[in-house]
Write a structure and sequence with these properties.
The complex is a heterodimer of chains A (338) and B (177). Chain A is of the alpha/beta class and 338 residues long. In chain A, 51% of the residues lie in helices and 8% in strands. In chain A, the strands form 2 sheets. A 4-stranded parallel beta sheet of chain A has the order 2-1-3-4, with helices on both faces. A 4-stranded parallel beta sheet of chain A has the order 6-5-7-8, with helices on both faces. Classes of the chains: A alpha/beta (338), B mainly alpha (177).
Chain lengths: 338, 177
């Protein structure tokens, strides 16, 4: 049984399809993993969906998929076996309808890989299967053959949206109507992307991932700017924001302040959980109240940015609820006619 | 009284606690390789804003000092896995150790407090009724038959346990008064 081969092997695709990696995806069934926090940032999902459509790739979402449960696991409210069972159930459901699952959220992506990692331990594997079996025995039926059996060498592969977008960057570029017009962009990868090694086979792919956002910004006509707190956490910190808000906001404050200090026009990231933490108006107000400084740097998810650059309707890219004058300004600069 | 780390001597080394943890999570046997270089602390987001100190926690475990289970420190970890990335030794998984210690802390009834879990009560209720942690998710709701499956997988027994413990504590405090 293979527990490591869950992440899509991007190196092999890049090697086998050097001129047009998009071809690899053309005949595949694709599924978008639904991240809970996309609720607040629908442009994160819609922007990606619209792009796939323009690239003539058919995608779906999985009706039977639940939340990844990472937030509960990180607070020790569920066991490793329960966590793995939730994720194995989601994998089963997605594998039933797709060959590749895309992730817009670092947390969800990490949860699925981490849950699978735990199954290497025979004791946890047995407990997990027992939990999954209890679903079958209680429901007294299987909707499809082999339902909720721990997947043995799953054909389903997972890929983070950022990794996919980087792989097909030239095709993405061809869909863009606008460019970044020399805007200065600070990047935030997010801990569960930056520190993740579960999906990387080689040192090259591990280190290479840490420049992908900067390379995309340059390709899209922007200027990536470095800042001191680039690799620090957004402040969410496995729900520390809910338990110890003042400490967590300090982490957020340091990050935003550091990006503002280098003159970044906005902060770009590949995760809606980080986006939530770094942009929520209530949190910005708390920061002003506790640390005496109003920080206004706008924050944008990569999928939203691509949507803006593609010239999509504003409400399709950025939800109305998070509009700020500075974000509006960025939108206007980018979409100004040349 | 808890001793300061500097006050410890070689006779304080005690492997019983370490063995207990390893029995629960085998991977944690690797913490014995820790060379106390402190890279994990220097690069830690939590350490910058709280008293969280992963090196100190590892030393306490290796000395068999179970007071670490009562310390609020273990609940301040961001689980960002940065320590794992910068550690010069291979296979020391500090976030997994922290989760392991939190489990033990739960088992002994030390923490966390019910008040700290209030948000989780709401989220777990939504999870068991909607399949997500937020109301009105983007797109279609999870069908009711599938929600049943989630209820079979987990019932958040720990939240109930902490709630009952908090009620018990309240009663004993009001009795004393």
């Amino acid at each position: 049984m293979n527990f490591n081969e869950l992440a899509l092997d991007l190196d092999t695709i890049a090697r086998d399809y050097p001129d047009n990696p998009l071809e690899y995806f053309k005949d595949k069934k694709l599924c978008l993993f639904k991240a809970c926090l996309e609720k607040y940032f629908p442009g994160v999902r819609w922007g990606f969906q619209d792009l796939l459509e323009e690239l003539q790739l058919e995608s779906s979402t999985c009706l039977n998929q639940s939340c990844c449960s990472g937030t509960f696991f990180q607070r020790n409210l569920i066991t490793r076996a329960q966590f793995s069972a939730i994720n194995e159930r989601n994998l089963n459901e997605m594998a039933h309808q797709a060959e590749i699952a895309f992730f817009s959220c670092n947390g969800c992506y990490n949860s699925l890989l981490r849950g699978r990692d735990f199954l290497k331990n025979p004791e946890i594997r047995e407990k997990t299967q027992n939990i999954l079996d209890s679903i079958k025995s209680e429901l007294k039926s299987e909707r499809y053959e082999g339902m909720y059996d721990i997947l043995n060498n799953p054909e389903l592969k997972l890929v983070h949206d950022l990794d996919f977008l980087y792989l097909i960057r030239n095709d993405v570029l061809n869909t863009l109507k606008f460019d970044l017009k020399g805007l200065k962009v600070a990047v935030h990868y997010g801990c569960h992307y930056l520190n993740l090694s579960r999906d990387k086979k080689t040192t090259r792919s591990y280190l290479g991932s840490k420049t992908k956002l900067e390379e995309l910004i340059t390709l899209f006509g922007g200027i990536p700017v470095d800042y001191q707190e680039k690799e620090s956490c957004c402040g969410w910190g496995a729900s520390q924001l809910l338990i110890n808000p003042k400490e967590a906001h300090k982490v957020t404050y340091n990050k935003l302040k550091s990006a503002e200090n280098v003159g970044a026009d906005f902060l770009l990231m590949p995760c809606p959980t980080c986006l939530y933490t770094l942009s929520k108006p209530e949190y910005r107000q708390n920061i002003e109240k506790w640390f005496g400084e109003k920080l206004e740097i706008p924050t944008i998810h990569l999928n939203e940015l691509i949507s803006i650059l593609r010239g999509c309707e504003e409400d399709r890219c950025i939800s109305l609820t998070r509009k700020t004058p500075r974000l509006e300004e960025i939108f206007e600069i980018i979409t100004e006619d040349k | 009284m808890i001793k300061k780390m500097a006050d410890h001597t070689h006779i304080d080394w005690n492997w019983a606690f370490y063995k207990e943890l390893v029995e629960d999570v085998d991977e944690n046997k690797n913490i014995i390789q820790c060379i106390s270089c402190g890279k994990c602390v220097g690069d830690c987001s939590a350490a910058k804003v709280s008293t969280f100190n992963s090196r100190k926690i590892i030393q306490k475990v290796l000395r068999g000092d179970k007071s670490v289970l009562k310390d609020s420190d273990i609940w301040h970890c961001y689980l960002c896995e940065r320590c794992k990335r910068v550690c010069p030794k291979e296979n020391i998984n500090i976030p997994l150790l922290i989760l392991n210690l939190r489990n033990q802390s739960f088992k002994k009834g030390y923490g966390p407090r019910y008040n700290d879990l209030r948000k989780y009560v709401e989220m777990s209720e939504r999870y068991l009724t909607l399949g997500t942690v937020l109301e009105e998710p983007l797109g279609e709701d999870l069908p009711q038959e599938r929600i049943k499956e989630l209820n079979i997988i987990c019932n958040f027994a720990r939240i109930n346990y902490v709630f009952k413990a908090s009620q018990k504590k309240k009663k004993s405090v009001s009795k004393k008064k």
